[in-house]
Amino acid sequence: MKRFYSAKWNLHPQKCPARQNHTFVRLPVQAANYTDATGDFTGGVAALDLASVTVNNDATTLTFILNLAGDPTPANWYSYFIGISENSFGGVGGNLNGPGGWGKNIQMSTGGMDYFIGGYPAYSGYSLLTWGGSAWTSASGAASQNTSSVTLSMNLSSLGMSAGNSFTFDVWTSTGGGDTVLDALSDNTARSWNSTPFDTGANALTYTVAAVPEPATCTLLGLGALVMTRRLIRRTV
Questions:
Q1: Which three-class secondary structure state does DSSP give residue 181?
Q2: What is the pLDDT of residue 90?
Q3: Which residues share a beta bridge with 121?
Q4: Is 114 helix (H, G, I), strand (E, B) or coil?
Q5: Measured distance CA(151)–CA(154) in Å, rounded
Q6: In whole angstroms, how far apart are CA 46 and each of 70, 137, 200, 208?
Q7: Any residues with CB less than 8 A from the CB of 128 and at least 6 apart, and which?
Q8: pLDDT of 5 higher than 80
Q9: Which of 76, 153, 155 is nearest to 121 (CA)?
Q10: Distance, CA of 84 to CA of 170 (rounded, Å)
Q11: Are 41 and 173 in contact (CB under 8 A)?
Q12: What is the pTM of this model?
């Protein structure tokens, strides 16, 4: 099944604000990996062929890491898109060709696309579009890339999200020109260069924002770990 994904807990070191010179504890950050078949973009540019997408969050930030079949760094016209649905308007979201959009016929008819992230990592940025019911409004953020992936991170608050919220999403590759979707995380359909209207439909993936301990909890956990460590040292002396 295309929509298979795996979730796991990563141990991520974070410093407690109360003691910046000590790393007391490793805080859990949820990460989910969603795989995509390679070779389904047939246009000959491996950097526009998705291999997988990793989604994770900490207390304030949601991050998408797009793992690619090729190197995205040689060209500045590669584009990487994310559509997010929170069912904000009763399942009727925006089409990317709507007012304030990017003129590309891309939509998520099931649930409705409430947010769109259009990444242009060659210029270290992305546009965050928010659907207001009749038009898109735009903000900006930072993107990065290396020879095998593109990373897009945004504040949870900019998406109206907090711990426990679930949302559906899709990830697409495209260009700065007239192409719509060249490769979609939500399906394995073979595509080449095209401007065909695209709809994720019922194939969107799901992610739930994980709760992360507050700094005060971090401090208490750290102090507890420190006490336990001292006890173990005493027992072994």
A1: coil
A2: 86
A3: none
A4: coil
A5: 10
A6: 4, 32, 22, 30
A7: 115, 116, 117, 138, 139, 140, 141, 154, 158
A8: no
A9: 76
A10: 7
A11: yes
A12: 0.82
